[in-house]
């Protein structure tokens, strides 16, 4: 009997040892803000708005300073994040509106579908903006659950003062009330600023519930906040709490949201096994003046290919894996999250060509050099407007919007002028504001980047030079 007891104990100890050696898949949470500029939170230079939870992310994780969205506009940026590809590679561009007849092709593999195939429970909350009607909602792209809105919360028949639009010549007056979708079904509508003020709180509360319900399984949560995109409005708890008006109130509420997620991970004792990422889809919509954010000193903002349009905050925390309180200046894009998270979770990569690169060795401090040296600044349907190589950026001739005209105030937009941008070379290491054209000093750099631009035109095409790319995939077309 004693021998059997000893044998049984030995088997139990061996089982415990073997089990302990099996690595547990990390949970993944991506929190994406809408139109939050590079300088909108304290870790990136904002003053006057306390952001203790963004600060905590920076203190306990890594802050990237050269992280770029693949395009500086909603739909395009979100397509890149989820597919790991330039948006024009997957046929997506601009910002979808009611009546738009395109959507992300469900045949595209996403972060959600790859992690789901690897055993993850996947959920999305917030703003989708990759398809306006079923079946082109998140459930067709690898998410097990979805609660949110199909597009930006300014896409509704309400004016800048919160009143119903009655002018028959105003296209926005013909738009429907903002639908709230659960799964694939409309469950509510939003038609007032008071209702919109509850969006951040509602999505945060549902995020906390999702984490608690799935804490015993590996999960992927994509929380896409609609703010600080206009119209800005905060819930009663935060309204009037900031010294910087409603914009500050909104940032403080988003900071609270980050804190709720951090606290829940701590309470459920899963923080050490959770990769938490905080990003923005693109830079600030600067023509809204005091209701817009800050590009942190970079040139221009949303919907432009200047640094103020694409360069945004990136904070990542993964305790015991990513060193806290560090800053990294490696060039990185939102396309790089898919292959990096696939590697971190033991998931497969998409079968089709992607543009993202694996940054896991850099995240884990196994190397001090990121794998990306080149980034293409596309905008519109397929306009190649710039090329970056290391610290060099060649701006190619193109038409562009500009925020140098009159800004707006109190929720009303200012004027966006149109300009023709000439060829120019900038050294972002010495001139991050893109103020000094140095192409005459470095003709060899210009030629190298022109060669890289030609590579992109062969691969992805370029409407500005009437080139058709060899490796473009089609978006879904709605009937």
From TrEMBL:
UniProt xrefs under InterPro entries: Alkaline_phosphatase_core_sf, Sulfatase, Sulfatase_N
Pfam families xrefs: Sulfatase, Sulfatase_C
Keyword Zinc: no
SUPFAM superfamilies linked to this entry: Alkaline phosphatase-like (SSF53649)
Sulfatase N-terminal domain segment(s): 26-346
Keywords: Hydrolase, Signal
UniProt-recorded Gene Ontology molecular function terms: arylsulfatase activity
Record flagged with keyword Zinc: no
Signal peptide: 1-20
UniProt superkingdom: Bacteria
Recorded family membership: Belongs to the sulfatase family.
Protein's UniProt name: Arylsulfatase
Phylogenetic placement of the source organism: Bacteria, Pseudomonadati, Bacteroidota, Sphingobacteriia, Sphingobacteriales
